[in-house]
Each structure stands twice: as structure tokens, then as C-alpha cells.
Automatic annotation (TrEMBL):
Alphabetical GO biological process terms: L-valine catabolic process; thymine catabolic process
Record-linked Pfam families: Aldedh
Database matches in InterPro entries: Ald_DH/histidinol_DH, Ald_DH_C, Ald_DH_CS_CYS, Ald_DH_N, Aldehyde_DH_dom, MeMal-semiAld_DH
UniProt source species: Marinomonas mediterranea (strain ATCC 700492 / JCM 21426 / NBRC 103028 / MMB-1)
Protein name, as recorded: methylmalonate-semialdehyde dehydrogenase (CoA acylating)
Gene3D superfamilies for this protein: Aldehyde Dehydrogenase, Chain A, domain 1, Aldehyde Dehydrogenase, Chain A, domain 2
Keywords: NAD, Oxidoreductase
Length: 496
């Protein structure tokens, strides 16, 4: 069986002391193993990144960017292979994988603008014959720790920007679906990246803790679940590192009585069930304002959901694939059970889907639950499955209060024809990414991505302009070249 190893100092290496199995979730079988790096292997990767830093730091930004141009072309050339690898280990449908990759490539395109993005600030004559400027210097070795649900896109949120800013990088991808990430790392080397600038170690908590504690690592970008994000942020801070840790979500859509309900239903189908709901931006709660909107939403959703098709990744007629593991499937089914036990009504039940030929896959069909209330476990926690819950309220204020009271604040959306209501909503809602008739308001690569509250620990968001600030530190220089013969006397106070 193939063992997926590491990529350290430009070379593949296999660590066989400890391995973990990798499944194809559509068939429910082990297809590969992945090396689980011990502390020494992670330290080797950090040492390689540290050694490469001195030269990489002084490589002109334009030259760094040229490698990214070649990398982008290689990602496009090998996109089918990358999507196949994503499908085989994550299970997402090929066109969904292609969408993920495209979003990732857009981050590489943004990184190609490094020379422009890294331009500093300059002021001539801040005082007599005195000039001042700020420049943005790299941090050194930085680390990324990424989740299973976007094995291509989320790493691409991080390392292209970190690297063009002059840092060297150690990535610890998810151990559940590492192959596409490894393949992408090889393409970056094929594009001409010097050895040691980008290293990938596969592993678990041991690898993560080594990255968090090692003094040579200056900053950590993390994306994953909230309990781990909180742990990463506090441990990184305790070790004196800069950290951005993006966590879980519970994204609500408010459905106003004036919304175009056919459009709402179309939008909600993809946003709730796409990628089996395994997206941090999945819309998992619809808050219907008023009895009529709630009844109409349930009726139309129920009818539309009949045509949804769950299945294997290569079949383009499927709408979404399996969940990542058997344990995760059981957890999602557990949430549906708990909602039912706590008094909600399961309108469309995906607990036992039929997927001919894939009976052992970790499939859950699209599920619609009505009359969910805020005290239910399935409402309080992130389900991360193809489950849409409907909460009914009487007013928009009540709907907004629900969202503002929730511990997560990643994404949200309002469906309405009323511009005034939409404007009020976007201004007052306590959520980082807001859609107005846009169900998945994922910012494009030249904005930045991040939630509020317990969906993000740290200050700066991922990718885009915030990434330039996250992966650099500002240095401000004030300079005077005294003219010949002009010498100033002693001064003991600021000039006034
Ligand atoms: P996860 O938190 O289980 O794992 C994320 C990473 O942390 C992995 O690399 C994993 O190996 C590592 N990890 C896991 N347990 C650890 C521990 N105890 N100590 C140290 N490291 C540990 O998340 P996941 O299941 O891979 O991904 C799904 C979660 O990620 C969901 O909650 C989803 O909302 C979230 N997510 C958030 C965003 C965002 O942008 N906010 C994007 C994608 C996914």
C-alpha cells in the first residue's frame, strides 16, 4: 500500500515509524497510509526552512513572484489530477473539487502581485533633511496547519502569500486527505522554488505541538475546528508567536417575507448541501421570518430536494459526495437524531440514503429539519453535514438577535428585496462575512477571509491584503544625512 510521506528540503521522505490509514470515503475502504511525523522529522523540516530563509529573504520580490506565475500555470495544467486526488480521499464531486482548486489558484494570482503589494510607505522631509519610510519585512519560518475539507484551497490561502513575502514555510496538512496537498507541493518545486523554502510534514498533534513550541517558527496560520483553533492560538501566543486561527461556524440565512422564494430555494440547495455541508461557509440554518415565509420555504425546499443526488465523485450528475469518515457520518446522524428527540420535525430524512454500488460509503442524504429552536444541541453546535435546519421567528430583529447571540460568526446572508432591510442587516450583524442575496459570501482573493467571535482567533484575516500584513512585520526608518559643515547641537527634547 502507498505510504504518503513528507516533503522536506525539496525531497520526498517516508517516515514509517508511525502511520495512519487514509480512506476512500465513497467505498469505505482504506486505500493509502500516511506517515505521522515524530518531533525529529518536524524539526528537520523547520531546520530546512530556517537554512533556506537567509537567501530567500533577499531574493527580489519580482523573482519570487515569477515562480508563482509558473506555479499557477502548473496548477492549471494538472488540475484534473489534483481534482482526482481530492475526490479519492475527500469524496467531493469533481466539479466541486474544480471550484475549490480555482479559488486556490486565485490566491496564487494575487500572490503574483507581490512586488506591488510589498511596496512600502515613504515620506520625504518629515523634518529638515529628514526622510522616513516604512518597509514590510518577512518574519522568517512560518507554519500552516490545515483542515480536511479543502485540501487544496486552504493551503493555497496560506503558503503562496507567505512565500512571496519572503518567508519560508512548513505546512502540516490534514492527515485525512493529504495526497492533493503533496502533489501541489511538488508542482511548486517544479515551478523552480529553491529547496527548503516550502516543506510539508504529515502528522498529528505531535507535529502541530512541535511547530507551536519551536522558537524558530515565528508565526502560525491555522484553519480547522474551534476547540483546536483556540488551543493553537493560546499555545502559539504563549510561545511568543503571531497567530491567526480560523475555526468553525454556524451560518444563518434570514429569509424575509418579501424574498423571491424560488430563488431562495435554489440558492439554499447548493449552500446547505454542496460539498455535503462540509464547508465552514455552508448555510446550515435558515431563519424564516413570519409563518407564511416559513411554510412556503419548507414546502418548496422539500419538493426541490427530491431531485438531489448523492454519490461518488467522478459522476458529474451527483450533487454531493460522502462525508469524510464513518465517525463523522455517525456524528451527523447523531445530530439529526438529537434534533428529532428534542422536538424538531425531520421533513426530509437523509439518514439512510441509497447509493447503489457504494453501500459501504459514508453517505448521508440531504436532510431538512423544521421547527428547530435555539436550545437544541443541533442548533448550538456545528453539524458539518448535509443538514439544513429551519428556525421560525416573527420579526427580522428576532432573526438578527439569534445570529448575534450565536457563538460563531463566520458567514451569514439575508434574502430580501428590501434594500433598507439589507443595509441595516449588513451594518448591525455580528458576523465577519455577509451576503445580500448571496448565500456563500466567500471573499475573492483580493479581499480577505475571516469570521468574528469564536470563528476566528487573532486579528488579521486569511489571504488578500490581511495576509501581506500577517506575513510581514513593519519596520520604520528615519534617516538624516547631515550636509557638510552642518552639525546640530545637543537636544534633550522633541523639537517643538
Ligand atoms: P480539525 O480541527 O479536526 O483539524 C484541523 C487541523 O488540526 C488538522 O491538520 C489536524 O491534524 C490538526 N489537529 C486536530 N486535532 C488536533 C489537536 N488535538 N492538537 C493539535 N492539532 C490538531 O478540523 P477538520 O475536521 O480537519 O476540519 C473541519 C473544521 O474546520 C470545521 O469545524 C470547519 O468549520 C473548520 N473550517 C474552518 C474554516 C474557516 O475558514 N473558518 C475553513 C475550513 C474549515
Amino acid at each position: 500500500m502507498d505510504v504518503i510521506g513528507h516533503l522536506i528540503n525539496g525531497r520526498r521522505s517516508t517516515e514509517a515509524t508511525r502511520t495512519q490509514v487514509v480512506f476512500n470515503p465513497a467505498i469505505g475502504e482504506v486505500t493509502k497510509e500516511v506517515s505521522i511525523a515524530p518531533k525529529e522529522t518536524v524539526e528537520e523540516a523547520i531546520a530546512a526552512a530556517q537554512a533556506a530563509y537567509t537567501e530567500w529573504r533577499d531574493t527580489p520580490a519580482m523573482k519570487r513572484a515569477r515562480i508563482m506565475y509558473r506555479f499557477k500555470a502548473l496548477l492549471e495544467e494538472h488540475s484534473d489530477r489534483i481534482c482526482e486526488l481530492i475526490g479519492a480521499e475527500h469524496g467531493k464531486i469533481c466539479h466541486d473539487a474544480a471550484g475549490e482548486l480555482q479559488r486556490g489558484i486565485e490566491n496564487v494570482e494575487y500572490a503574483c502581485g507581490a512586488p506591488e503589494l510589498l511596496k512600502g510607505e515613504h515620506t520625504k522631509n518629515v523634518g529638515p533633511n529628514i526622510d522616513a519610510w516604512s518597509e514590510f519585512q518577512p518574519l522568517g519560518v512560518v507554519a500552516g496547519i490545515t483542515p480536511f475539507n479543502f485540501p487544496a484551497m486552504v493551503p493555497l490561502w496560506m503558503f503562496p502569500m507567505a512565500i512571496v513575502c519572503g518567508n519560508t514555510f512548513v505546512l502540516k496538512p490534514s492527515e485525512r486527505d493529504p495526497s492533493s496537498t503533496m502533489f501541489i507541493a511538488e508542482l511548486l518545486h517544479e515551478a523552480g522554488l529553491p529547496a527548503g523554502v516550502f516543506n510539508v510534514v504529515n502528522g498529528d498533534k505531535v507535529a502541530v505541538d512541535t511547530l507551536l513550541e519551536d522558537k524558530r517558527v515565528k508565526a502560525v496560520s491555522f484553519v480547522g475546528s474551534t476547540p483546536i483553533a483556540e488551543y493553537i492560538y493560546s499555545t502559539a501566543a504563549a510561545n511568543g508567536k503571531r497567530c491567526q486561527a480560523l475555526g468553525g461556524a454556524k451560518n444563518h440565512a434570514i429569509v424575509m417575507p418579501d424574498a423571491d422564494m424560488d430563488n431562495v430555494v435554489n440558492q439554499l440547495l447548493g449552500a446547505a448541501f454542496g460539498s455535503s455541508g462540509e464547508r465552514c461557509m455552508a448555510l446550515s440554518v435558515a431563519v424564516a421570518v413570519g409563518q407564511r415565509a416559513g411554510d412556503e420555504l419548507i414546502e418548496k425546499m422539500k419538493a426541490a430536494m427530491e431531485s438531489l443526488k448523492v454519490g461518488e465523485c467522478s459522476d458529474k450528475t451527483n450533487d454531493f459526495g460522502p462525508l469524510i469518515t464513518k465517525e463523522h457520518k455517525d456524528k451527523v446522524v447523531g445530530y439529526i437524531n438529537s434534533a428529532e428527540e428534542q422536538g424538531a420535525a425531520v421533513i426530509v430524512d437523509g439518514r439512510n440514503p441509497t447509493v447503489p454500488g457504494y453501500e459501504n460509503g459514508y453517505f448521508v442524504g440531504a436532510t431538512l429539519i423544521d421547527n428547530v429552536t435555539k436550545d437544541m444541541t443541533s442548533y448550538e453546535e456545528e453539524i458539518f453535514g448535509p443538514v439544513l435546519q429551519v428556525v421560525r421567528v416573527d420579526t427580522m430583529e428576532e432573526a438578527m438577535q439569534l445570529i448575534n447571540d450565536h457563538e460563531y460568526g463566520n458567514g451569514t446572508c439575508i434574502f430580501t428585496r428590501d434594500g433598507e432591510a439589507a443595509r441595516y442587516f449588513s451594518d448591525k450583524i455580528e458576523v465577519g462575512m455577509v451576503g445580500i442575496n448571496v448565500p456563500l459570501p466567500v471573499p475573492v482573493s483580493y479581499h480577505s477571509f475571516g469570521g468574528w467571535k469564536r470563528s476566528l482567533f487573532g486579528d488579521l484575516h486569511a489571504y488578500g491584503p490581511d495576509a501581506v500584513r500577517f506575513y510581514t512585520k513593519r519596520k520604520t526608518i528615519t534617516q538624516r544625512w547631515p550636509s557638510a559643515g552642518v552639525r546640530e547641537g545637543k537636544t534633550f527634547s522633541f523639537p517643538s
